[in-house]
Amino acid sequence: MLKLESVYLHLKNGHEDFPILEDINLELENNKFYALTGPNGGGKTSLAKVIMGIYKNDKGRLIFDGEDITNLSITERAKVGISYAFQNPPRFKGMKIKDLLKISADESSLRAMLRAVGLCPQDYLDRECDASLSGGEMKRIELATVLARPSKLVIYDEPEAGVDLWSFENLLQLIRNYHKKGNVTSVVITHHERVLSLADEIILLADGKIAERGSKEKILPLIQKDSRCCWQANCGGNDNEIECY
Amino acid sequence: MKLNAIENELLKNIADLHKIPSGAVNIRKNGEGIIRHSSANIEVRPKTDKPGIDVIIAPGTKNEAVHIPVLITMSGVVDVVYNTIIIGEGADVTVVAGCGIHNPGSKKSQHDGIHEIIVKKGAKMRYLEKHYGEGEGTGERVLNPQTLVIMEQDSMAEMELVQIKGVDSTVRDTKAKLAEGASLIITERLLTHQNQEAVSDMTIELNGQGSNAKVVSRSVAKDNSKQVFRPIVIARASSKGHVECDSIIMNQGKISSTPAITAEHPDAQLTHEAAIGRIAEEQLLKLMTLGLSEEEAEDVILRGFLQ
Ligand SMILES: Nc1ncnc2c1ncn2[C@@H]1O[C@H](COP(=O)(O)OP(=O)(O)OP(=O)(O)O)[C@@H](O)[C@H]1O
Ligand SMILES: [Mg+2]
Q1: Is residue B232 in a domain?
Q2: How many angstroms is it from A44 CA to the middle of ligand 2?
Q3: What is the side-by-side order of every strand in the sheet holding A33-37?
Q4: B304, A84: Cβ pair inside 8 Å?
Q5: Which residue among B19, B88, B183, B202 sits deepest, i.e. has the most Cβ atoms within 10 Å of its Cβ?
């Protein structure tokens, strides 16, 4: 349903140009549930943003349901059925939660949407989507904005981050229910083993490249074996610097 | 007295009125009072020495509203009006003012509303003033409100001053003097576009012990429009004050915001903040991922911001 062919991404930070994604070739199948994982800074969010059209890839093509979407805008990609739940959802000063939700949901389903993400409608509908919301509340609202829309492909960027332990299973259930409603391909970006275990397939992204793909049985041992390398970033420093802490 | 379609449209925009309200009301059109009623507790009477009205709200009046909108529907009118509003002790009421100009011609139409409001001991007032302009003519639409609010001991006031559309030039001057225990919240919302200009001066004096005031101003300057904000809070007693100006700038708009605080008492607690910037890019991107175009996203963000 989605195919990335030799996709590259560079981003500028001041005058410097950083390679973020290199030669990404990836094919996602219809109705499958994917987990995308990898070390911090490996490029997961960037890849999601390239698929959503937020970042423009500087080489390569994206094919969605047989159509070349490389040159489509964010809005156009949203309209063909691609959705993305932000890792760090922006806040909107002055805007009521109900007005944000109304963009994707119709008036009659607003209350149900909030209840689905575990927020009491009477407490939240009229609240402002501003800095007064807690991190976990904002993540839930972000999820609601996405689940209220019809999509063919949904990318969730660390949906569980900041969500409390009591709600963790409900959150996963919600994502799975949306997936099972039919004709949805789901990609969950995650660092969580429990989420990895739900996936049909795990994609491992490191250093801007697809490092591995496969089942949980194949991928998890690789991560465990590798973990020390990731923590001690390859910056040529002295190991003793770390041992001091 | 019946109002025509234009007048009804103006009333809807400035006072959310879909018909003439049943309680106390004064509607002024093109420099003349055209509809006036008092209610049992709210007396509305014309001034004898100059244009304008006195609104006298009896002590203890609860949950009543008075509407005093002003309409201008002709080109070339300059209307100056003096209104005095007295909220009796212990009353709890809503005052809906506001002015709408429909300028059909090429001459300037202007309304200068000079208001003096006295909120007596222990009284509570909610005050709404919306300004709105429209009309097919090229004539300027000008609104210059001057408001002085005297707040007696333990009184409370919440004032919402809004200018959303169609006013070419405005110079607002708002002053408030707070006695012991008085509490004031002013929210100002302003949107200017094309070549419009808006200046807002505010001086809040915290004269009594335990008084407090909060001023929140949010504005958007589009196209070539210009805005100037100069809110000042002066504390002369143990009191609290906060001023906040938050603006979004677009196109070639210009905004200058200089909130100021002056403490003349050692137990004064005053804070201010001001921010001017574009619409945050992340906000636009997020709304576009929900299928809105960039223009639609901008619109939704501005509407929320000015809500
Ligand atoms: N605008 C930018 N300019 C320069 N570098 C950037 C920019 N945005 C992201 N990066 C860098 O790109 C790399 C990939 O970032 P990305 O956010 O995609 O990582 P991630 O895999 O999602 O990490 P995490 O697990 O921490 O969320 C990081 O090294 C990051 O610092
Ligand atoms: Mg990320």
Answers
A1: yes
A2: 5
A3: A82-85, A153-157, A185-189, A33-37, A201-206, A209-214
A4: no
A5: B202
